[in-house]
Amino acid sequence: AANSDLIRATLFPGDGIGPEIAESVKQVFRVADVPIEWEEHFVGTEVDPRTQSFLTWESLESVRRNKVGLKGPMATPIGKGHRSLNLTLRKELNLYANVRPCYSLPGYKTKYDDVDLITIRENTEGEYSGLEHQVVRGVVESLKIITRQASLRVAEYAFHYAKTHGRERVSAIHKANIMQKTDGLFLKCCREVAEKYPEIKYEEVVIDNCCMMLVKNPALFDVLVMPNLYGDIISDLCAGLIGGLGLTPSCNIGEGGIALAEAVHGSAPDIAGQNLANPTALLLSAVTMLRHLDLHDKADRIQDAVLKTIAEGKYRTGDLGGKSTTSDFTQAICDHI
Amino acid sequence: AANSDLIRATLFPGDGIGPEIAESVKQVFRVADVPIEWEEHFVGTEVDPRTQSFLTWESLESVRRNKVGLKGPMATPIGKGHRSLNLTLRKELNLYANVRPCYSLPGYKTKYDDVDLITIRENTEGEYSGLEHQVVRGVVESLKIITRQASLRVAEYAFHYAKTHGRERVSAIHKANIMQKTDGLFLKCCREVAEKYPEIKYEEVVIDNCCMMLVKNPALFDVLVMPNLYGDIISDLCAGLIGGLGLTPSCNIGEGGIALAEAVHGSAPDIAGQNLANPTALLLSAVTMLRHLDLHDKADRIQDAVLKTIAEGKYRTGDLGGKSTTSDFTQAICDHI
Ligand SMILES: CC(C)[C@H](C(=O)O)[C@@H](O)C(=O)O
Ligand SMILES: CC(C)[C@H](C(=O)O)[C@@H](O)C(=O)O
Questions:
Q1: Rounded average pLDDT per 10-residue block, chain A, 337 residues
Q2: Which atom of ligand 2 is nearest to the CA of B84?
Q3: What H or E segment, with its residue span, contains residue A155?
Q4: Where does the Isopropylmalate dehydrogenase-like domain lie (chains A, B) (predicted)?
Q5: Does B217 touch chain A (CB under 8 A)?
Q6: Three-point CA angle A57, A60, A65, nearest 5°
Q7: Which of A14, A89, A324, B240 fits A72 for a cystine, CB–CB 3.0-4.6 Å?
Q8: Interface of B with A in 82-121 (CB under 8 A)
Q9: Reported pTM
């Protein structure tokens, strides 16, 4: 029953393991008494025969109206001649910044125990322009597009994020020694914004060097802001440092205050429907959505319960070396709430 | 004095610490009785007032004639309106493949102790085309160019390398889910070549996933082949796993059998001229040059001496946490030969 005290949020469970991990989020939210009412939409790689579309107009409208949502994994077919659903959502909703907090999980050991950084990725242009063509037989080209508008917008978001989240430094990642015009424009915009935030330290790091420094000593970094493809690469690298994409939250910020949180791991068709999936990334993404809504109490309670459950180690899913099912792991989280 | 039994090789000491580490290579080669006569050329960022060029025609001709050479670091000025010398050399000499072996050094501890992989990077095109322009104010674009010819050439080199070096697998790294035409063509060429080498396993890995897997478990990889920018990024990431660019060799392969080995670290102007630089990367690069010349005995002796000196730990330069000078470290290597 509709309740006017409830915040409506869109939910795209997605493909593969998506529905199971979305179920886990719904359960945890119920137990934590989160005042959210889900508006669930089917978006996935199976074409709706009526619309011939992977993505209905209603699903997009739902996010635009609610301004807040959560999405599970959506499979990206390689070379099948249609564009990734993830990309379509980013473009259609103008999700200009992809924010991925990445921190070492207490009690879950990797080679690194001091990771605490945020990657902020420009999410609409760059190498993802979709503009490619064959010049002559055997010669193809892709266009990387960098605009002043999108660069300023994501830089502004990064500095504002740093300031409001008690972060000290923003590093702009680039390859302007090679792409002087495109990455050069990106850096120019970052510098302009940096001047408005004298309390935040600003530095520029070449992407190859950045990757080397990240694997040697990730504690050197704080907030990183970068063009689309570098963000794709570096956010995955960072996820690897703390255990993988199954553990890292992500949130997309769009024009007009839209926030679409998402698990960025794959849809894992091999284990779909078997109650084996790890819902952590989707749960922690849902937490970023709650923070966006300023529901920090609920966010803290859920985040603590997830981290505690992982730290205790009694209930862990297969990807973390455990034997737990999705539902037992979820129940353990609920018990901690 | 010229000696017809000697092989002539070009030497570009380069900028900053270049001359010191080149001196170290010359000394080690003398002690190891390597039958090489160096043809030294000044190539660097200080313009020769007569030629107004960073790079003389004679230096290029020297490599073309000798077909083998060694280069130290050359500074790349950012945004000064001229192209990097490293890039100019690659284009002028058509150095189509950049080969970087990367292995854990015995006795030099990092978080990883089982790295043993080879990155092979297409070195002439891709994002390094140099084609960029402003479309309208605030909108710039760069062209990424992929050709069938260059892709086949580097793929062929990678598979041939794998076969002749007892390697089992070649992984092609790409982002063809986004750049379906450019990276798609690159993959198509790799697949064509893979069919000619049924004894070598072949796989395709998306670059973001590759970076995540590399930091989680580098032992998953063997030989990696990829377009230019991905090679730039991944080779530095890999270097980070084993301690940094001061330790990893590199060799550029060009049309007509040219091999130009190079240290890919920076010119470190802050410590230049102070006898503090680590010559390891240039020495191990010189070793790859010797292997290219089939001087495996000499290559083995020098490589063993370098690794032993580092493993013993008595003489290590500052970058490796030691206090040794360049000359003491070099002397220790010579003593092991
Ligand atoms: C699935 C793919 C299209 C996507 C991307 O490249 O952006 C993914 O890697 C991500 O990071 O969300
Ligand atoms: C210095 C720079 C132009 C160069 C590159 O980007 O190729 C360097 O990073 C390298 O890997 O040799």
A1: 78 93 98 96 68 75 96 72 76 95 94 96 96 97 98 98 96 96 98 98 98 98 98 98 96 94 93 96 97 95 97 94 96 96
A2: 3
A3: helix A148-164
A4: 8-333
A5: no
A6: 120
A7: A14
A8: 84, 87, 110-112
A9: 0.94
CA dihedral in degrees (B305, B307, B309, B314; nearest 10)?
A: -170
- Tokens 């570098």 sit at which residue? A230
**B282/B278 Cα distance (integer angstroms):** 9
Alpha helices in chain B (DSSP H): 18-31, 57-66, 85-92, 148-164, 182-195, 207-216, 228-242, 280-292, 296-312, 326-336
Strand partners, A140: A134, B146
Could you identify the residue written with the tokens 């914004």? A193
Contact across the interface for A237 and B215, Cβ inside 8 Å: yes
Rounded to 10 deg, the angle between the B280-292 and B18-31 helix axes is 50
DSSP H or E run through A64 = helix A57-66
State whether the beta carbon of B177 lies less than 6 angstroms from ligand 1: yes
Q: Which ligand is nearest to the CA of A86?
A: 1
CB burial readout B145-171, b (16+ within 10 A) else e: bbbbebbbbbbbbbbebbeeeebeebb
Quick one: tokens of A192? Answer: 């302009």
Phi, psi (degrees; rounded to nearest 5) at A34 = -75, 130
